[in-house]
Design brief:
With 358 residues, the protein is of the alpha/beta class. The chain has a single domain, classed as TIM Barrel (Alpha-Beta Barrel). The protein is built from 10 helices and 16 strands. The strands form 4 sheets. An 8-stranded parallel beta barrel has the order 1-2-3-4-9-12-13-16, surrounded by 6 helices. A 4-stranded antiparallel beta sheet has the order 5-6-15-14. It has a two-stranded antiparallel sheet with strand order 7-8. Strand 5 and strand 6 form a beta hairpin. Helix 4 packs parallel to helix 5 and helix 8 runs parallel beside helix 9. The relative contact order is 0.14. The structure holds manganese (II) ion. The site of manganese (II) ion (MN) has 7 residues, from helix 7.
């Protein structure tokens, strides 16, 4: 198993690469979407939460991920001994009509294929995605973690409708409303996912790129009146069973899975690792389940993290673990401190299980 760090778009520089290398990482998962662009409620030093108007403004729909940019990031990271293990998330500007089944769906699917080919040509083996209408929405922020550290949680269902122009919790139009996102059923959402996978998986497989699905965050059956896809652990199996392609994989988020009401996380992890469908792991801890849970420090939540790592080892998992979100620590660099704490804990776990094995 490899230790990795997730970096937001504005962090793709030498200082952050050095920080990752110093913490013992050999891999990075990078974001190309700028969640903080023109955002009012988001601090760039923390995970985005936003408000009912979402995060920031989505990107330029005509500006696809550039081959040169991808190759440059790979080259710069390599200088610090880091591989780019994955890109995380598509920009809603690039695929909102894939999610909504809208008029530009065919064009956007072609654009996605173009970007998948470029990612493969740059030597990046995976794209994580979150097939979701409302996206990561409905969460609160508070001093939930140990020592009153600021973290993210959920304090009950959020049913306020999504205004038109907001997709995947980002603004894809100049203004929001009037009106709301068109209605959609769970069956329609699964059909849309199937269309996406049917169109893109052959290109992904030919390009040496896995498409790795994140479960819903938060994993409620509906958020803001929109259906969710993977809000119970067995729905991951339904996604896997859509296609036997080796590129049909999981962005395995321990936190989101543990928040599901029907999750036995240890049996679940054993099953998906045994099927060799886990592309990479979001290694974070949580207390409680939807609709009332709180994100915690990696060592203080409901999940027995050493047990998870041993299950992954025993099933032969060779991929990357990244911290995902971490509570903000009380100092001048809350994001860095939170990540360094999580990475130190993870590195110790990985060293311990390696010794057990030998
Ligand atoms: Mn996650």
């Amino acid at each position: 198993m490899k230790l990795g760090l997730g970096l937001y778009r504005h962090q793709l520089d030498d200082d952050h690469f050095r920080f990752a290398a110093q913490a013992g990482c050999t891999a990075l998962v990078i974001h190309m979407v700028d969640y903080f662009n023109q955002a009012k409620g988001n601090k760039a030093g923390d995970q985005p939460t936003g408000d009912l108007h979402g995060w920031g403004r989505a990107g330029d729909p005509t500006q696809l991920w550039e081959q040169g940019f991808l190759e440059d990031v790979v080259r710069r990271a390599k200088k610090h001994g880091l591989e780019i293990a994955a890109i995380e998330n598509f920009d809603p500007a690039h695929w909102h009509d894939v999610l909504l089944d809208g008029p530009r769906k065919a064009e956007q699917l072609e654009n996605i294929k173009t970007m998948v080919r470029r990612v493969g040509a740059a030597g990046i083996p995976c794209i994580g995605y979150n097939f979701s209408l409302a996206g990561v929405a409905g969460r609160t922020r508070g001093t939930y973690a140990r020592g009153s550290a600021e973290a993210v949680g959920m304090e009950g269902p959020v049913d306020d409708p999504v205004p038109a122009g907001l997709v995947w919790n980002m603004q894809v139009a100049d203004t929001l409303g009037p009106g709301t996102m068109p209605p959609c059923t769970h069956e329609q959402l699964w059909a849309r996912l199937n269309d996406f996978l049917t169109a893109v998986l052959p290109v992904a497989e030919a390009s040496g790129v896995a498409l790795a699905a994140h479960p819903d965050d938060p994993p409620m059956p509906t958020i803001r009146g929109t259906p969710r896809l993977v809000y119970q652990p067995q729905l991951y199996q339904k996604l896997i069973d859509l296609s036997p392609s080796p590129s049909n994989r999981l962005e395995y988020c321990l936190g989101s899975l543990a928040e599901m009401t029907e999750c036995d996380l240890y049996a679940c992890t054993e099953s998906y690792a045994q099927q060799d469908r886990i592309a990479y792991v979001h290694f974070r801890n949580v207390r409680g389940k939807v609709p009332t849970y709180k994100e915690t420090f990696v060592d203080e939540g409901d999940i027995d993290m050493p047990r998870i790592v041993r299950i992954l080892r025993d099933q032969g998992f060779k991929g990357v673990l990244i911290p995902d979100h971490a509570p903000q620590m009380a100092c001048g660099a809350p994001w860095h401190a939170g990540m360094a704490f999580a990475l130190g804990y993870m590195r110790a776990l990985l060293q311990t299980i390696t010794e057990e094995n030998s």
